[in-house]
Amino acid sequence: MVLTVISTPAITIQPVAQTVVEGDPVVFAVSATGGNLQYQWRRNGTDIAGATARVLRVATTTTTDDNAAYAVVLTNAQGSVTSNSATLRVVAGSVRALPVAAAEVSLNKAGIAAAAFTLVRRSNGSVASWGYNTDGQRGDGTTGTPSDTIGTVTLPAGRTAKKISAGGYHALVLLDNGDVYAWGLNDNAQLGLGDVLSRTAPTKVTLPRPAISVAAGRAFSLALLDDGRVFAWGANTVGQIGDNTRDAAATPVPVKDLTGVTQIAAGNTHALALRSDGSVWAWGGNASGQLGDGSFKPSRIPVATGLGQIVRIRAGGDVSMAISQRRALYLWGENADGQLGLGSAATTDVGVPTAALRDMVDGAAGDRGSIALGSNGLLVAAGANDAGSLGDGGTTARNSFAAVSVVSQGIAVDIGGLSFAAAIGADGTTWTWGDNSSKQLGNASITTTSTPTPTVVPSFDAIP
Fold this sequence. Notes:
With 464 residues, this protein is mainly beta. The chain has strands at 10-13, 18-21, 26-29, 31-33, 38-43, 46-47, 55-58, 68-76, 79-82, 86-91, 104-107, 117-121, 127-133, 144-152, 161-166, 170-175, 180-184, 199-205, 211-216, 220-225, 230-234, 249-254, 261-266, 270-275, 280-284, 299-304, 310-316, 319-324, 328-333, 350-358, 360-365, 369-374, 379-383, 398-403, 410-415, 420-425, 430-435, 450-456. It is built from no helices and 38 strands.
């Protein structure tokens, strides 16, 4: 028997006001207590027919939606309550293809500052590495203490890297022939090799077909195959594998009922997939709402976020990101440090995709901060700033996005799991900033444990 306690409805998370680009989607949601709740959404005070769920999704916005006010009435046997109104602003925009970066930076997702490392895929297909190396994260067959001396990951002879991804303490690389290799810590079988033995050099993962992308979570891994299927392996504590089981996977297994995928991304314990129709799906951990379905409950199979017209996805920490074909950036998930950048509009975790910025081409999220790259090549950041990871020259946290100093003409960006970040410029210059306790900034001239100002990695060119 299930005992349901009914009380007067009380709203815990209000709908968030948003500004979107005309033609893009918008999602509103409410969270409340009370039990046996019924929902009725209203637009400008008038009931919306059929809008009786906790989440309201508008697939395509138009100019007639500009300045519309959305609210929801929650009712049960004990009474009713009406949410705050969330005003929707709709601005002009156009469909524009996103640029593809010649080089790529990937920072690991370790939850402690003293275990951080950096990977850079150069434009020539080689992979550079530095920082933490206790479990072979350097990828050159060695282990040892952290080092800011730039090394090179050992790839198979004649092969080049097309994609890299750093997990918590392991890493993945996609080669030009579609092979996937893994190295580093393997305590949760996150290397996909059928055992729990760590590797100090890249080792081939057996997959049924060539891959076109990889993504590493904190202790699990993903590969996207050329037929649109996604395979996963490693830890499965909250459904990261996506196969509707509770068992860890020592070798790759297919994510359940997921086809037609074109991109993948992985956070600490959750994953995202972008399908060819522009929809975004998610699975795994959801305590902060990072799956985007409004439930705050984990899912062991992919669930729809309700987003469409998306062309790029990113994930990190307990945060998810998506960029639309009109270059609008949506964020959702953990907001304890203001890392969603929504300011006073939302100070709690947000369980549905929420439009945050416009004219963006890329972004990245970590445990406590988020960074976005604009069409103009400039960066903005929000969230905790303990070690200067927001790159503004200080250490004061921000719950709204503001400029990262120094960096210009950026083409690629990432933020490490706890408190460091990096960016690559169009000329191959690589900047790093934030925590440096594992020498993950790659700069021996930095003698302090951190720097709040982006500094150039010396004698290094990501686009040789």
